[in-house]
């Protein structure tokens, strides 16, 4: 096996291990619960065990789309791009979940404006319809 292939496989193993929490959903979970969820997702046929084929498919689903030019090789740039895409997708999913008041999985301008009004009201400490620098400093922890 070529050294570059070994390095790529080692990088994939590290990237997969470091991003394995994302294999589960975004809620913080106990370690055992995360491991069980990862196992269940890898066990595609629900047989109670994971074959190499199931394991390889699970790993490919995590980072397999990184070979964007289809040459059979994944460069550091391709892998980094895929990792960033996955992070952006998770962040977007959390934003939709947070702002989507009607639960349809999409955001409307009205839902965003409603959220903005709530945020503004929390920062406008004296309810005068304006935010002054002192309120900004006091309100910088408004999300907590």
From TrEMBL:
SUPFAM superfamilies linked to this entry: EF-hand
Range of residues in the leader sequence: 1-24
Pfam families according to UniProt: EF-hand_5
GO MF entry, a single one: calcium ion binding
Keywords of the record: Signal
Domain of life: Bacteria
Stored InterPro entries: EF-hand-dom_pair, EF_Hand_1_Ca_BS, EF_hand_dom
Residue ranges occupied by any EF-hand domain in the UniProt entry: 39-65, 87-122
Protein known as: Acid-shock protein
Provenance organism: Kumtagia ephedrae
Biological classification of the source: Bacteria, Pseudomonadati, Pseudomonadota, Alphaproteobacteria, Hyphomicrobiales
């Amino acid at each position: 096996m070529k050294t570059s292939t070994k390095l790529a496989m080692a990088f994939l193993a590290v990237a997969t291990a470091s991003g394995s929490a994302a294999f589960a959903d975004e809620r913080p979970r106990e370690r055992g619960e995360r491991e069980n969820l990862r196992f269940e997702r890898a066990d595609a046929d629900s047989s109670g065990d994971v074959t190499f084929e199931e394991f390889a498919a699970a790993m490919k689903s995590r980072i397999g789309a990184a070979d964007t030019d289809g040459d059979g090789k994944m460069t550091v740039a391709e892998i980094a791009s895929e990792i960033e895409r996955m992070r952006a997708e998770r962040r977007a999913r959390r934003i939709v979940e947070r702002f989507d008041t009607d639960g349809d999985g999409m955001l409307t301008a009205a839902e965003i404006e409603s959220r903005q009004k709530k945020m503004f009201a929390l920062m406008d400490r004296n309810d005068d319809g304006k935010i002054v620098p002192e309120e900004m400093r006091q309100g910088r922890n408004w999300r907590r």
